[in-house]
Prior knowledge:
Residues 1-20 form the signal peptide. The chain has seven helices and six strands, in the order ααβββαααβββαα. It is an alpha+beta fold.
Amino acid sequence: MMRVLLLTLVIGLSSGTAMALNNNPWMRTCRIDQGIFWILKGAQQQEYVMCFFDNATIGAEEFFKFKSNYGESLAIQAYKYRGFSSGAANICENAGAKHVQGSGYNGKTFDICKFNDGSMIDATSLWAGPGSPETAKLDSALSSTY
Length: 146
């Protein structure tokens, strides 16, 4: 009897957590466009909520806002409309953003450009820009709104 009660409690709690995550609009929007929703850990307990499209990464909030017709964030504008010829190490500064680092679950480090409006994009994605094979999936996701 106690095992059944415990199992029922665990299932109830886990389904509630799954239900809450599925109601997250940033996560849902990312997944609709075949992205992977992930939270990177930064310095001083910062968290960077990102949407991964193969090798290209963009902030989940700005991706959601773009897809919901709230306009283009500074990160999306920098990605779509500006050309950068410098190396990836200086890309954030050249784009007018602050460089921050986040790490994934496996310890892999990501260089993120964080703009004044809070929007974020991976430095390598910004450097590669639209039309690059590395950013093809992100290009496809940014090509239309819902």
